[in-house]
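Checklist before submission:
- one chain only
- standard amino acids only
- sequence pasted in full

Submission:
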Amino acid sequence: MQVLSVGLAHADETVATSAPELVPSGISDIYSDVDMRVRLAIKANAASCVAESCNFNQAFDARVQQLGVQLSASAYTVYPTIKKRVPQFTFSVVDKKDAGTASNGAGKVVLFRGLQQLELSDEALSFVMAREMGHVIGKHHVTNTAAKLIISALATALFPAAAILSASSTVAQASTTTTLFTSAASTATSMVGSELALARMKPIQLAESDAIALNLMQYQSWDLRSAASVLQFDDDLDATSHQNGWLQDLQISGVQLQRMVIDEELAILSLEDDYLITKKTVSITVEGPH
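Returned file contents:
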């Protein structure tokens, strides 16, 4: 198998792991884990396996574990400073119907059972797993937790009546409707503000996680051309992706990967042409004009 090494910038720890920690990592680990569990809870469950499908599930789970071991080793080699913050990456598959992934700040990476339906190659599945690891390595959970906590504090400041009323049981009992309204307004402001903030940061974080994933793939010398080709989905999946934001993000990553592969192939061809031209020029110079 011919391996294509895409010409990415080498992994730079100052880019991937030096984001300022506005909140302690321990707090972001707990907060991100709760957030991940809540998001998983609202996802539709996959149908229970029967007979042969159970064997299919077990085989997929085994692949995930095997690839996870390889990716973890690469992560600690390419980004050695994360070992202190994330002593271990863990990988598991949850029985959720749609394709997707999730993670928390402590290094727990979760794949949805729906990924099996994509029939990804080892290269493509490794890229998907490495993308999610990229969020952990890039400290995106820390950043997101800080954003949510800051916006929550601002929402409380915008609606101080909730705190004032709750401080007096007498007033609170006499103003139940006002208290509930103020509390609801504060909560709504916090939630909407958090989602808007995360939406603004999302494109940057996705690009960073893609770059980290590609660095991990490069270190393992995976065939990125193969991964890129597998991630070019057909029309049926294109239609499905409109209801699945995660699939839309993966398609964007696949397109970017495909472009990088093409650019690298063109660069290689250009170098080959330059070499042939140089070789021919030297030959003519040595032989002299006829």
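Reviewer check: Strands lie at 90-94, 101-103, 108-112.
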